[in-house]
């Protein structure tokens, strides 16, 4: 995302979020962000209709930025989420939700040679681009450790080959008697994607990690609980969900005009894509409400300088780690 720090400069506490909150809420030019928003009022009905899930808007977005230059490889994530590197389990499975062109996938593949990454996105075009970028890298055996698949999470949920109904309902630690790693590997043999799994009728048995990196904010607020529950259902017991997304009072939120506000903290860009901005309580309610145990949750507050005009920008992201109970 624009404004994010490179690996060498990475830090997360340049300013206090409460100080930013005081500055913003006392500034009259930002008053339109705090006006009451009534979902069922006549004046809001047209705005709410615009906030319906629009995967086509994201598909158009990815086509416009298909060169891959818009997103930079997110190497800082390995410092934020060292579990992705420290996990030495053979064929440790990571599900990257909303993988885009692979900016999160590549650091994971580089950092952990044991990791197998399943990356989903609503755009088949950007998945092809992600596959090209990953295969062109010098990552060890990357071609056989990255499995992209098309999925519009708010609309369809995850496919059953990722975790079948039985896996979603039972403790995966006790299921090795009926679904062995060898059977899964046989399904994947000779295939660059997960088509063979879908055809065989079995599943990969869930994943060890789910990463939600600037993805949940693109989903309408009312559909977030279902999306989070889907992530919970495909995680193995004890597995971690790693979260990073836009925080309340981030610079990009304050740039939105009054007419772009389509929810209490939800905004519609001119290209038709959505952006939500999270406070800690909202994130906590979403994940704990789905059954997760909160391990870490805080604001990440970064000051960056616009190289073109020299202005200082205060960026706010939410960092979180949530665990599925064993």
UniProtKB/TrEMBL annotation:
<dbReference type="GO" id="GO:0032259">
    <property type="term" value="P:methylation"/>
</dbReference>
<dbReference type="Pfam" id="PF13489">
    <property type="entry name" value="Methyltransf_23"/>
</dbReference>
<comment type="similarity">
    <text>Belongs to the methyltransferase superfamily. METL family.</text>
</comment>
<dbReference type="GO" id="GO:0008757">
    <property type="term" value="F:S-adenosylmethionine-dependent methyltransferase activity"/>
</dbReference>
<dbReference type="InterPro" id="IPR029063">
    <property type="entry name" value="SAM-dependent_MTases_sf"/>
</dbReference>
<dbReference type="InterPro" id="IPR026113">
    <property type="entry name" value="METTL2/6/8-like"/>
</dbReference>
<protein>
    <recommendedName>
        <fullName>tRNA N(3)-methylcytidine methyltransferase</fullName>
        <ecNumber>2.1.1.-</ecNumber>
    </recommendedName>
</protein>
<keyword id="KW-0808">Transferase</keyword>
<keyword id="KW-0489">Methyltransferase</keyword>
<comment type="function">
    <text>S-adenosyl-L-methionine-dependent methyltransferase.</text>
</comment>
<dbReference type="GO" id="GO:0008173">
    <property type="term" value="F:RNA methyltransferase activity"/>
</dbReference>
